[in-house]
Amino acid sequence: MTMHTTALTVAALSLALAAGLAQAASLAPQRERTTDEAIHADHATYQATQDRIQALNDAGRPVRDYALSKAQCWLDVSFHEYTRNDRSDFPQEALDESVKLIVAMEQGVSPILTDTPLVNRAARLREDLWKRLGAIHGTPGFACAQQAVACGEVELVHAGNEFNQQQWRHAKPYIQIAEDMVSDAEAMARTCGNVEGAASSPAPMALTANVLFEFDRRALADVREHSLRTVDRALARVREENLTLTAVRLIGHADRMQGQGFDYNQALSRDRAETVKAYLIAQGVDTSRIAYEYRGDTEQVQACDGIRNREALRECLLPNRRVEVKFEVAR
């Protein structure tokens, strides 16, 4: 896309948004969300916005469409936090993002921008997940993965908002939702080709999982069970999609807490990679196809700045204590 085309797109979107201001969806001010009347009015606002999304779908825009999906997911996270009595600006700002997309679709703007604002100054968590979603944009498989990509991006913002408000313990469930959506999006992109509007050439063939370890631990018994299941699901997908596993690349990591120094963290990340290698061999993966490397604490995906409580910090840094498992596959 040229700079001239981009400028025209932005201008068109601005005009569309201006035309839709009369249809903006506004919630009651936070201090007024205490009466039945105010809450009833807000629920009516949510329903009216849902009706506009439904009307776009009824007019022929498919549910899996990126913009329609993203509008729905922004609406869903806004309502979710509203019902949880979130008194911050997040419910309104997330609702605003939904309406912006709705207006653009109603006004026929094309292409619709795919940026994902960090509403309410949400923290940008898990850069690795953002990159995996970003890698699907522009590929042939995006036609099939649009809905999962859109909602994965929104859930990452949702998690970042929760992190700012109540730290990692409250953000973690939404990160796990986003992780599942990223994996689903990658699977949909891999198997794309039979859906109307999808290109016939396949997306890059790769599956990714992250095995997470407890603090200063390296044995299989020290792995978080839910993360080990991501490896099992990836292996199951290889079988279900009738793929050939050509290679497995393991990359071991440690978190940034260098209590025993840089060299110690290097060795810790190496041992973690070796633990995962042994697990894969036990699952029937040919040892000759597995290669591993280790990077200590040099590649952090979660900063956890500002957390002073040591136990809370260790939990927040969990995504850094990982072994990346990259399955290379072919049909």
TrEMBL record:
Lineage: Bacteria, Pseudomonadati, Pseudomonadota, Gammaproteobacteria, Lysobacterales
Signal peptide start and end residues: 1-24
Domain OmpA-like residues, every copy: 200-331
SUPFAM superfamilies noted in UniProt: OmpA-like
Listed name of the protein: OmpA family protein
Keywords assigned by UniProt, alphabetized: Membrane, Signal
